[in-house]
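Worked Example 4.2. Consider the chain below.
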Amino acid sequence: MGGRTFALAGAGDEAGCELKDTPSRGEADRLHTEPPRVKVRYRGNPPTLGRHWPPGYAVAGTAWNRDPEPGGTGRTLGCPRWSDGVLDALRAFRDEHRGNGPEPIP
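Applying the procedure from the previous section yields the following structure tokens:
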């Protein structure tokens, strides 16, 4: 997804998207579901922390930021429908959150 750079809040608003933050509860949010059929209760949809399965939005982007440490914060960009502006919002979301996760990048 190359192209122009956009301010996330403006691009999200323009596309009719919703930006959400979900604070971590620590290590519990770092667990993964095994086996796949385990039922999970979510604090956000689509989930951004820990165990997660399919989202409820038509188009969504998720990220996991390291702040505040140690557990970080899940970030969601949820868009109710596809539009040309959604692509710009997703690019801005990607650029804003790239490389900011709580786990080291190899």
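The chain has one domain: 8-97. The chain has two helices and three strands. Compare this with Example 4.1 before moving on.
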